Amino acid sequence: MDNISEQRVLVTGVGGPAGSAVVRYLKKKGFFVVGTDINKVDTEADLFIKVLPALSDGFREELLGIIDSHRPSLIIPTVTEELVTIAELRDRLVAMGTVVYISPADTVRVAWDKFETVRFLEARGIAVPRTFMAGEASKEDIATRLGFPLLAKPLKTRGGRGVRVFESMEELMAEERTEIVFQEFIAGEEFDANLFVTEDGRVDACVVLRKTALKAGLVGNALSVERVEDERVGLLAKKVVEAMRCRGPVDVDIRCKKDGTPTVLEVNARVGGNILDAPEILDSLIKQWRKEVKRR
What we know:
Blueprint: E1 8-11, H1 17-28, E2 32-37, E3 47-50, H2 59-70, E4 74-76, H3 83-88, H4 90-95, E5 99-100, H5 105-112, H6 114-122, E6 131-133, H7 139-146, E7 150-154, E8 164-166, H8 169-173, E9 180-184, E10 190-197, E11 203-214, E12 222-228, H9 231-244, E13 248-256, E14 262-268, H10 280-295
Parallel strand pairs: 1-2, 1-4, 2-3, 4-5
Antiparallel strand pairs: 6-9, 7-8, 7-9, 10-11, 10-13, 11-12, 13-14
């Protein structure tokens, strides 16, 4: 158990930005990496396994079978849809000899649902965009209350998938999706706060990245980032993880309003796609894992 190269780490979603980044980090550290994805992908993982989608009926048992067969000492999940299942399985995984650093299942459920995230944080005095569920009010009323531009995003999504910005009533009226939320558009700079929270709730690492380019221009995943020292953003991110009782790696997207007020856009209860620009988060995770191994 002392030789890192003999330790198997299971990384999920290795075809995505976060998963591939985690694999790259671990390989440089000398770990043997087992990677999974729902698609056959090119990966630096030592062993690749194609798996069922996380929301399919057979995913839970398939995951347990993979862990039973390959005996990873650590699993790092990077796919949002699988987080609830893995959080629910945490005690069973630990009993099988596999450590996972993840928030409680109830926390993961809130973070996955964009409307529930807003309601939860707003009730605790944390700044969030003004938000409406589709159907909660007429589009005309929503436009009057939010103003243009405003945006819509799927109730449950990953990254910037499905986010649309509307500049006019005509564009808004053409929106036909139902499982979405409408939000005010926060026009300021966007940040990606990466944190690692220990089992006792202590923030062991916090790195703030400023998004310098977004995939869809105004919204979307970051095409490039830079490290910054922004105390306001860092403090807000820490307040969020404390309020939500997050554990393990957490990725918090934050934008600043025109008056400089940092506002929480969403919370991802997992490693973020820009993790290689914030390696301290994975450093902290591995540090905690090594302590766990020594206790066995």
